Amino acid sequence: MRIATLTGRAVLVSNDGAGDAAVDIANASDGRFGPSPRSVFERWDDFTAWAADAALDGGDPYDPADLDAPIADPRQVFAIGLNYRDHADEANLAYPENLVVFTKFASSLAGPNVTIELPSDKVDYETELVVVIAREVHEADVEASRAAIAGFAVGQDISERAVQTRGPAPQFSLGKSFPNFAPYGPAIVTLDELQNPDALRITAIVEGPSAEGETSRTLQDGTSADLIFAVDRIVSDLSQIVTLYPGDLIFTGTPAGVGMARGLFLKPGDVLTSTIEGVGTITNRFVAK
């Protein structure tokens, strides 16, 4: 399944080659599920059983540009730092032995296709696989943690590096939580939709003039197989301390190619396209504040 949000309502989306179509979950289930997107995940077992047997029509056409954040009001948003081997290598840092965890405050969440104001000339990009939780878990082993995952989405962990690194102590969460600094979507894709959910290609392409005169550059090209802590291990390790709730989000880290390592930051007029194999694409435009 691909679960998305249109005008604040949970929908099932598809693209059968004839165009994008959406089925309103609350209408199709006669009010049993939805319309709140998070409420679908809070009744995940009942919802998936219903969806498996439901006789759904083809849905109504929609414009992908109208998609909202799949879940706009998660109880918790986690983010994992330094979680790809090639990213740690480019930063000349040792692979962590434990999760490096921060948050992106919920006010930074945004839909998959938004315009982002640049608060400074030190704004960076990080394409990330986002995990969405479907079952409450605490002190879960890896197997139970895998079963607690509803699906994946494409995310951007946009970062203002000056705030993030300012003293006397780093301010990761603040530097990564300006408005629209956590766009994600376009939908939450269940793992059964993916041929190999543990090895997904991740790319980021920016369109905009560079110092070298290029107008389109591939900034990141990696794979989730390079994760230091795999998604089920992330859920398990987090759950040893906190309780995870349905609808919670986990930004799982970024592969190599981030701007800070290159001395490259986003500029007004840039268009950033982030894609994860089988999950989808989000596109963000950057303007001066």
From TrEMBL:
The keyword Metal-binding applies. Coiled coil: none annotated. One of its GO terms (molecular function) is hydrolase activity. It comes from the Bacteria. Residues 77-286 form the Fumarylacetoacetase-like C-terminal domain. Keywords: Hydrolase, Metal-binding. Pfam families: FAA_hydrolase (PF01557). PANTHER family: FUMARYLACETOACETATE HYDROLASE DOMAIN-CONTAINING PROTEIN 2A (PTHR42796:SF4), FUMARYLACETOACETATE HYDROLASE DOMAIN-CONTAINING PROTEIN 2A-RELATED (PTHR42796). Belongs to the FAH family. This is Fumarylacetoacetate hydrolase family protein. The lineage of its organism: Bacteria, Bacillati, Actinomycetota, Actinomycetes, Micrococcales.
